């Protein structure tokens, strides 16, 4: 649905990599397949439900690959993402976020009549409005109570979990469990820091579970975790469902984490970079080169993109430009500047908002150097903000 | 062309402001009209050509308003932006940027057969390839030689201007003048810093002009300048055309500049905030509130958005959330937290990449508080990266 008639696709199936117009969002399909398999194996071998976050890829095609590999469904953050993915055949979606607007809640209730739908709540107002909307539509949804486990964003305090779950139940809704995601912990660099953060989060979940038990309410499931910490949540014994999203692509920022995907007793899961922005050198100065990709092509909220070939630092050149400067290598050498027209592969600092800048994924089989374009998937939920 | 069939517009003409779905990109049409008139008056009263940068708004509707107010045409940074705006009836476009890819240059040459087109060059390779493409298509374009006037990005050194202009001419192309834009100067906070930067840029332009004169080449026009410095370029005596873009909307970052739009002998031109992201409070904690707009709704390359109502600091809450904390006012008071469902108007830190995140402008007449939706323009060239 995100195809813009005025925008030509940067490539067609069968094109060689060299023919992909720039800047373009390119998936190394072989690397992505290995990432999908590695996460699916981690979850299934250890008995966890896997519900990957589709806010990362916004693609029905990738959601279906994840479900084919064993995922129970996907998460999204926005109603409009859920609507678009549902329209493209994704049958089980969890909006892991609060919606409080009555017009939006009427759409939530309508969508709940078309697919299996879950949603998060963190306020009495939100619960009451959701209940009214579902009642008016005659539909049902799974309702998770979100608790704040350290992010300081949405979510109620663990001590209020029982009260809110009771309000869910007294409104005649289905209490599906706790939403407990610590976004801030994902990007802590050392494994020790991440371990401390998730131990703290787990303690808060246990407080919430105790609070629910005091209220006489059984908690069917605790859902959360991300690519930076999932092995820690898995090892904690409190989470039952993992929501990792970025593992499918891996961005520069996650790769900067030390020993991501590891936890005591959980082994080590490694993911590969599978998402790139193909750019082209458009200008060469005395000591720098300029590529045709700026922060309208890649998000910079988690820093500048990496340069896949190595040997260069990427500096911000504004909305439409990136500036490459050679860096001195360990052996004392410095790479020669590329020439006008040369290809430079960028590794996005943060995948999710980078994907949201593009209309299409160009899927390449056989590697970036000599591969061939296999697919040109739409980023179906690109721009789905509401 | 950027209408996504899967995305509903956040409002319809005639809707009250309260009915606009969130997050949404909202123009205060009255404020924008005053900005358009103020810049047009500045240019016409002082005899400058005005060619606003459409990279800011990516909208044929706004480009036409600018031309109706006296602009000679618009600038863009990307070929695909030019193609889409041309398709929507913009007749005179300058791609103020280098294009070196041969497949792209064939499209440039084709477009030059449909509208009046100009383009920048900064390399021998680029000039030769452009000439070959135009010759093959049998079309013509105005060619500007870009010189680096302090940004350290694209552009040749002023001392090479003559050589490149000669290559333009010897290839049978039309040398239209010099592209001289100092992007880095736009965001220097003090007027003294900006004055030093533009005096330096002007000196480099004069060097390039002398270099052209030595080569016996007349320079028809020097084009450049932005919203942060245009009065300084105008006062310098070397620029003949102004490319300001952000003045139409004004973002938080430009508003942070002291005495923008002023220069000795040029008076003072003031612009108003005309572009906003409408957001909604979705969660309220003990000392913060969370709105449903994160950096998928507004660009943060120039910092966080401002809060139009005042009294709150906006902190980054990730891709889909913003966190508001009350700040202590001058009178020692602190604003009360908003309630779930309340509207919060955000002033984007940087307009251009914020606009690129949205599919539609919701144009409001009569003010943000009690106005009515008048227009729902597509962001025509949204996502035009190539």
List keywords for this structure.
homodimer, 386 residues, alpha/beta, Lyase, Ornithine Decarboxylase, Chain A, domain 1, TIM Barrel, 2 domains, 9-stranded mixed sheet, 10 helices, 19 strands, disordered N terminus
Based on helices, strands and strand pairing, what is the structural class of chain A? alpha/beta
Helix content of chain A: 25-40%
The CATH homologous superfamily of the largest domain in chain A is called Alanine racemase
**Biggest chain contact:** A-B, 75 and 75 residues
Number of helices of chain A: 10
- What is the CATH topology descriptor of the largest domain in chain A? TIM Barrel
The whole-angstrom Rg of chain A is 22 Å
- Count of domain modules of chain A: 2
CATH class of the largest domain in chain A: Alpha Beta
Distance between the termini of chain A: 16 Å
Named CATH architecture of the largest domain in chain A: Alpha-Beta Barrel
What's the overall average pLDDT of chain A, rounded? Answer: 95
Question: What is the number of beta strands of chain A?
Answer: 19
Shape of chain A: globular
Unreliable runs of chain A: 1-5
State the major sheet of chain A. 9 strands, mixed
Task: Explain what this protein looks like in three dimensions.
Two copies of one chain form a homodimer. Chain A is α/β, with parallel strands linked by helices. Chain A folds into two domains: 117 residues, Lyase, Ornithine Decarboxylase, Chain A, domain 1 (Beta Barrel); 232 residues, TIM Barrel (Alpha-Beta Barrel), CATH 3.20.20.10. The first copy, chain A, is built from ten helices and 19 strands. Chain A is globular and about 70 Å long. Chain A starts with 23 loop residues before the first strand and ends in an 8-residue tail after the last strand. Chains A and B meet through α3 and β12 of A and α3 and β12 of B.
